[in-house]
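FAQ

Q: What does a record look like?
A: Structure on top, sequence underneath. For example:
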């Protein structure tokens, strides 16, 4: 082939592999930051605060943020962690002086029927939210928040939250008996809609989906900002110069072949998560980041500097266009580069098979040509004197 297409594909495969490894480091660091700052829970609390305010702003304006914090830490929503005992001790000491919270980690997902049920339960004075510190009596802040929410629900058609709560529980059992094949969420949703047919449920149903969509948008925007910041730090710290990498891939055949080999092995690996738990997913991301960093720093790649250069050189690296290009490419994310790597490897296998077939055809044609030349060379020269057609004596023409 006149144009080395496979070489260009190998260069792109090497670039994609490096970006996959760098994006994995960015993804792991971003997940750590979002988990440490409780980003999902914070945005969910803001959305729940807006939903609670829409029931009756004048009654719950002061207590809506605190009620939202309690809801996301309900045992049905929040999660137990190894820090739960420590949180319980701190909550017990602050019970008399400041608003306390249940000693669990805030959850990040709440369903519409769960929110309605938990608000009615809290207004009725039942459930674990009434005693977050588990001291046997409701703290003053919790009692005031419950009274404000109960007054707001009474204005919206829930005059007796305790009776409404009992009716919902009985209706859930009836729905389970009538339609046992349906999921439990459907039993609860139908029970809340049937028993709580009032203005409170109407407001909640009308605003829940739009509010949660805004919550998702807000979390997505914050995630993108963190990804941009972490990608910039990674590209700057590793001094990942895309232009230098492309030049090296173009002239270093061994380096290019090593990257293609590692990329093929990486594409064949299948990552299986045994549980959807967030902590295990985070641990998996961190392990992948460590492996990626170790691979980038290995003698084969040698892309991570062994020691940090002087501050002047690090600042000068910001002006290099290759580092800025690397930052932009890292923003595309690990899924994009992993898909690109798979597609390039698939295209390379097709082009390699085609190139092999064409090479075999050329070799076969050259072999046939050489054999023909050998046959012509080995054949004796033709003697026209023995040919009767050219011998006049053989025809009797000479008498």
């Amino acid at each position: 082939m006149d144009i080395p297409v496979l070489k260009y594909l190998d260069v792109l495969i090497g670039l994609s592999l490096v970006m996959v490894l760098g994006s994995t480091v960015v993804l792991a660091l971003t997940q750590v930051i979002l988990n440490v700052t409780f980003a999902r829970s914070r945005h969910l609390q803001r959305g729940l605060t807006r939903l609670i305010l829409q029931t009756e702003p004048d009654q719950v304006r002061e207590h809506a943020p605190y009620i939202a914090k309690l809801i996301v830490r309900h045992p049905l929503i929040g999660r137990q962690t190894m820090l739960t005992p420590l949180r319980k001790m701190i909550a017990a000491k602050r019970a008399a002086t400041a608003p306390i919270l249940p000693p669990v980690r805030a959850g990040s997902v709440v369903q519409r029927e769960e929110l309605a049920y938990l608000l009615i339960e809290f207004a009725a004075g039942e459930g674990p939210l009434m005693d977050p510190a588990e001291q046997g009596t409701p703290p003053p802040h919790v009692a005031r928040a419950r009274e404000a929410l109960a007054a707001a629900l009474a204005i919206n058609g829930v005059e007796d939250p305790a009776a409404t709560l009992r009716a919902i529980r009985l209706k859930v059992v009836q729905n389970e008996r009538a339609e046992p094949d349906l999921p439990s969420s459907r039993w609860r949703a139908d029970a809340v809609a049937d028993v709580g047919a009032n203005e409170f449920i109407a407001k909640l149903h009308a605003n829940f989906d739009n509010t949660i969509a805004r919550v998702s948008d807000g979390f997505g925007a914050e995630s993108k900002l963190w990804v941009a910041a972490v990608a910039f730090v990674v590209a700057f710290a590793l001094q990942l110069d895309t232009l230098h990498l492309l030049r090296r891939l173009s002239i270093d055949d061994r380096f290019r072949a090593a990257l293609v080999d590692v990329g093929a092995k990486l594409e064949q690996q299948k990552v299986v998560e045994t549980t959807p738990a967030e902590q295990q997913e985070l641990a998996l991301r961190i392990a992948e980041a460590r492996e990626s960093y170790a691979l980038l720093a290995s003698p084969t790649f040698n892309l991570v500097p062994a020691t940090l250069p002087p501050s002047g050189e690090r600042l000068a690296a910001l002006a290099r266009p290759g580092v800025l290009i690397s930052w932009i490419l890292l923003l595309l994310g690990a899924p994009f580069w992993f898909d690109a790597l798979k597609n390039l490897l698939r295209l390379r296998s097709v082009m390699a098979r085609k190139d092999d077939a064409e090479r075999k055809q050329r070799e076969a044609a050259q072999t046939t040509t050489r054999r023909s030349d050998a046959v012509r060379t080995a054949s004796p020269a033709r003697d026209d004197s023995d040919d009767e057609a050219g011998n006049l004596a053989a025809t009797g023409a000479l008498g």
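Q: Is there anything notable about this one?
A: Confidence is low (pLDDT under 50) at residues 270-275.
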